[in-house]
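Z., the sequence and structure:
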Amino acid sequence: MLRCRQKSIIFLINNAGYTIEVEIHDGPYNVIKNWNYSGLVDAIHNGEGKCWTTKVFCEEDLIEAIAAAMGAKEDCLCFIEVMTHKDDTSKELLLWGSKVSAANSRPPNSQ
């Protein structure tokens, strides 16, 4: 994307884990090392081309980041890492996770 001079805005929602996997089947394998995704993009960028990264922690930060991406940084590939709480999810997603969990715990269909 940098090589082709893309001017996209990429949002990565980082909840520091596998929230839905915990709902489907909890276990120690769902505790993962959280990556610094914006740092990874900076490392890939390595000063070549036009790239801007930021990490946001609240709604106000996000509004400012979007304004920057559409304003002062509009000539860059913009990567916005949005930090959320690991349990920040919708009721619908939790319900879906419980249904998948129930389906996964059934014995195999003998065909």
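The two ends are 48 Å apart (CA to CA). Residues 91-104 form the longest helix (14 residues).

Let me know what you think.
H.
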